[in-house]
TrEMBL record:
<keyword id="KW-1133">Transmembrane helix</keyword>
<keyword id="KW-1015">Disulfide bond</keyword>
<feature type="transmembrane region" description="Helical">
    <location>
        <begin position="190"/>
        <end position="212"/>
    </location>
</feature>
<keyword id="KW-0472">Membrane</keyword>
<protein>
    <submittedName>
        <fullName>Thiol-disulfide oxidoreductase LTO1</fullName>
    </submittedName>
</protein>
<dbReference type="InterPro" id="IPR038354">
    <property type="entry name" value="VKOR_sf"/>
</dbReference>
<dbReference type="GO" id="GO:0016020">
    <property type="term" value="C:membrane"/>
</dbReference>
<dbReference type="InterPro" id="IPR036249">
    <property type="entry name" value="Thioredoxin-like_sf"/>
</dbReference>
<keyword id="KW-0560">Oxidoreductase</keyword>
<feature type="transmembrane region" description="Helical">
    <location>
        <begin position="224"/>
        <end position="243"/>
    </location>
</feature>
<dbReference type="GO" id="GO:0048038">
    <property type="term" value="F:quinone binding"/>
</dbReference>
<dbReference type="Pfam" id="PF07884">
    <property type="entry name" value="VKOR"/>
</dbReference>
<feature type="transmembrane region" description="Helical">
    <location>
        <begin position="166"/>
        <end position="184"/>
    </location>
</feature>
<keyword id="KW-0874">Quinone</keyword>
<comment type="similarity">
    <text>Belongs to the VKOR family.</text>
</comment>
<feature type="compositionally biased region" description="Polar residues">
    <location>
        <begin position="45"/>
        <end position="59"/>
    </location>
</feature>
<keyword id="KW-0812">Transmembrane</keyword>
Amino acid sequence: MMAKFVTVSSCQFRFGFRESPPPSLTLYPRRFEVSGRRFPVNPIKCSSSEPENSEDSAPSLSSSLSSSTNEVSTINSSTYEWFTALGGIGMLDTAYLTYLKVTGSDVFCPIGGGSCGDVLNSDYAVVFGVPLPVIGFITYGLVTALSAQLGEGNLPFGISKTNGRFALFGITTAMASASAYFLYILSTKLSGSSCMYCLVSAFLSFSLFFFSVKDVKLQEIQQVIGLQICLAIIVVASLTVSYSTAQPIPSRSSDIELPYYLTEVTTSSSPYAIALVKHLNSIGAKMYGAFWCSHCLEQKEMFGREAAKLLNYVECFPEGYKKGTKIFKACADAGIEGFPTWIINDEVLSGEVELAELAEMSGFSLDQANEANQLQ
């Protein structure tokens, strides 16, 4: 008598029930007895839905995971390269503005209307006594250094990569918030003034912020969204407090009209300055400027009253300035774009220039300087 096959959980158990022959006829290596009957124990064979070549499937899964990891690593590395590049550009931009701010120089007095110099010299270019370009240089430097370390996966002080990404996210959030506030200031308090460097910095800040959002996962952003909002509020509130006593620069409308007027030089000239001016005139050096340019006046003050009268100076708006006024032909032919501008031996020097640098550029010899000192 045979029993039916019973299948349990894909494993086939085969039980054979029959009369066992005498031990003398057939020997079974494994058996058990129940109530005087002997039952052979057949091996249990389990079938599985997974493929039999499990050894081949494991390497395939491992290869797939490895490929996915490499793809994510490449994406992150590419993102951090963008961070580093944009941060480096921001450092160059703010380093130049920092130099101008610290030295008291100006970008240029542009032809008509406001300029980056107006913005850079305004009360809004300082935050709690610290020049704004200095703060920008530091933040761009932090972004550049941190993104470079994240790209290499080598963060200092045992900082994890997740915390490093959160820190980068926080810095770029603060930068984007500050840039948005500065754009508001530029369009309201500094209306009529243009600042190309400010706009470039704002573009870089927003780009870095969007890259950081892309780098941080959505689930992680949800964890820190409250902190980011608080950080943005703190930045805007701090700037508002700092600018509470700031004075807006006068609006420069398109119909502004400036009649020509003479500027007065108040300082006295030294024999050295007079001798230098005579030497500059002898080699055909020229200074181009505009009557309303404060930096042109400061350049003349360096020479002094007597020397300034001898200076080979070209006024680019001798008839005054108003909408539609064209620059003086001599200035246009020389390609003048800002004031003051020096042209010495076919070389162009922009902005205020120290007398020592003018002497070096023009080949003003030490003997000539000594002769000037002897005349003193």
